[in-house]
Amino acid sequence: MRSRAARRGWLPILVLGGLLVGACGGSGTKAPAPPSTSPTTTTSAQPTATTSVQSTASPTTEASTTTTVAAAGIAPLTGLPVDDPVALTRPAMAVKIDNHPEARPQAGLNQADIVYEYEVEGGVTRFAAIYRSQGNEHVGSVRSGRLADFDLVVMYQALYAFSGVNDNIRALIRDADWKRWTLSPMFGDNCPPFCRFPLPGKAYEHTMFGNTYQMWDMATERGVNEGVNVRGFSFREAPDPDGEPINDIAIQWFGEQDARWLYNPADNRYYRWNTGLPHYDASTGEQLSAANVIILEAYHVDRPDIYETENGTRTMDILLYGRQRAWVFRDGRMVEGYWIRRGRNRSGLWLYYDIEGTRPLPLRPGNSWIEVVRCCTMPGLTFSQTYADVAATSTPSALTATAHAPRIPEATRTAQAPNMAATSTASAATSQWRPTPFPGPTGTPFR
């Protein structure tokens, strides 16, 4: 890894109210053959912090002493030009999306400006997709909220869409000053925008989908569909010339839950694999991809006072405030730095080269995936210049997924099909969405 001190003197091209902005272009083509350079890996050790917290009030919002305003016509969460002026006046929306193996492929993740992935109870991860510059008529499957989402709501001053929460978290939401920003069937928000689209053989909890445009309409009716100035990320078209070349980013949480991002130099994007298989968006058939992949270390804290009703385990809180290490991957290069958020009731999360927070670390204009891992010595982080042989892992991974799939008798599936089809048809009519079959994978730049 290169020293941070070697990067002195690298300055952004343009600063507008603290936001470094740029334009982005290019089209995707097949990637050239991977380089033969020997791998460079970074692996960290098992965390030991298991602090318990007895009670925590819901974070309340507090005005920041500084204001970051995006340039006119620039999406504040991506740094890209926006054609629709409505996208600049509405608030961000955080939608909780399932990542259980049965829920894949999910719908609408490629349309999110930012996607957070973090671990939850039960040996899986979950997504919080942040939409603002664009939305999607069919996003999901939508799942339940977690304590970690509270930080995201305040951080982005965002509307918060989820299927439900346990009673303890529900009480915290009711006491929060952002309660009116929540959209959930738990609070009477039904179809539309939250509708069921069941399929034979798919568990009920994986069948709820939402329409982000109808969610924004609902927020308008409540008087909370107002955009705010955002704070935090900066953008620059040119990459850091001192960044370390990294093409393969592998994250192993636990068991079979992992994520892998491979860089495609043909379009300067990272493509996602999950549990050894290409991870697709059900709306388009395209593989999930990002202009930036960001890994944040954060303390994970057990909450013995709150149990999850889904699995009877203790709730885990993820402390997305303070300052910890961060790795930023863009344009095939890795830069080490820090993320800083100066309090749980403060909006904005910043990326810096230095822990003092004096030199912003800019992203490439485009969408970002943020992987939240345990602080401060997470096992299973591997960064390599050499590409993984994903073709070799796909077949055994597919066999494993098939072996773990739910076994439902064919007679039961047949009996369920008519009612499920009727429910899906009614939901589609109510949500004004025209369901189409999953178009199937469109292929990947890595063969």
Provide the descriptors you would attach to this structure in a database record.
447 residues; alpha+beta; YerB-like fold; twelve-stranded mixed β-sheet; globular; disordered N terminus
Give a quick summary of the entry.
The protein has 447 residues and is α+β, with helices and mostly antiparallel strands. It is 15% helix and 26% strand.
Structure description:
With 447 residues, this protein is an alpha+beta fold. The chain has one domain: YerB-like (YerB-like fold). Helix content is 15%, strand content 26%. Strands 3, 4, 5, 7, 8, 11, 17, 18, 19, 20, 21 and 22 form a twelve-stranded mixed β-sheet that branches. Strands 12, 13, 14, 15, 16 and 23 form a six-stranded antiparallel β-sheet that branches. It is globular. The protein starts with 14 loop residues before the first strand and ends in a 16-residue tail after the last helix. Residues 1-69 and 395-408 have low confidence and may be disordered.
**Main beta-sheet strand count, sense and barrel state:** 12 strands, mixed
Helix/strand order, N-terminal first: EEHEEEEHEHEEEHEEEEEEEEEEEEEHH
Shape: globular
* Total number of distinct structural domains: 1
Structural class: alpha+beta
Poorly predicted spans? 1-69, 395-408
Please, what is the average pLDDT? Answer: 76
CATH class: Alpha Beta
Helix content: 10-25%
Kindly, what is the distance between the CA atoms of the first and last residues, rounded to a whole number of angstroms?
29 Å
Helical segment count: 6
Q: From the coordinates shown, what is the CATH architecture?
A: 3-Layer(bba) Sandwich
Could you give the count of β-strands?
23
**Approximately how much beta-strand content do the residues carry?**
25-35%
Radius of gyration: 21 Å
Q: CATH homologous superfamily - what is it?
A: YerB-like
**What name does CATH use for the topology?**
YerB-like fold
